[in-house]
Amino acid sequence: MATRATIRFATREEGVSFDKHPEKWHAQFYNHWDGYPEGLGIEIAESFTKYRKVEGWEVEALDIVHGDIEYLYYVWQCHGKSEPWISIFHTHEDTCIFVGTPDMLLKRYAPEQIETEEFLQT
């Protein structure tokens, strides 16, 4: 069974909360497999922290809305602010389940990976 997700890139703006859906976004992608935070969330975070390549995303028009996605991700970026923020929404409950930086996402959804990396560095 596929865990579908949509990934949207939005601009960080004053007064826009990361735990709310923004009114507009600038790019949108569809991911058919492993859309849960422990899969796709880690992949997105590692694309920033380890420059990992993302694979399997389909570029979509901004107005497409899938009725069968389980997770909706927003990647918030802004010129002059180096670190992006990520929001994850569980669409069936329309609740925000995560807001934070890529490092914060990895600590929450891949703690064993972080502990292993820290151990190897000492």
Can you give keywords for this protein?
122 residues; alpha+beta; six-stranded mixed sheet; 33% strand
Can you describe what's shown?
With 122 residues, the protein is an alpha+beta fold. The protein has one domain (5-121). Helix content is 26%, strand content 33%. The protein contains three helices and six strands. A six-stranded mixed β-sheet has the order 3-2-1-4-5-6, covered by helices on one side. A hairpin with a 2-residue loop joins β4 (71-78) and β5 (81-90). α2 (102-109) packs across α3. The protein is globular. The mean pLDDT is 90.
Task: Give me a quick take on this structure.
By secondary structure, this protein is α+β, with helices and mostly antiparallel strands. The protein contains three helices and six strands; from the N terminus they run ββαββββαα.
Structural class computed from helices and strand pairing = alpha+beta
H/E order of the elements? EEHEEEEHH
Total number of helical segments? 3
Radius of gyration: 14 Å
Query: Largest sheet, described in full?
Result: 6 strands, mixed
The 3D shape can be described as globular
DSSP strand count: 6
Number of domains: 1
Strand order of the largest sheet: 3-2-1-4-5-6
Give a topology summary.
Layout: E1 5-11, E2 27-31, H1 37-49, E3 57-60, E4 71-78, E5 81-90, E6 95-100, H2 102-109, H3 111-121
Parallel strand pairs: 1-4
Antiparallel strand pairs: 1-2, 2-3, 4-5, 5-6
Helix pairs in contact: 1-2, 2-3
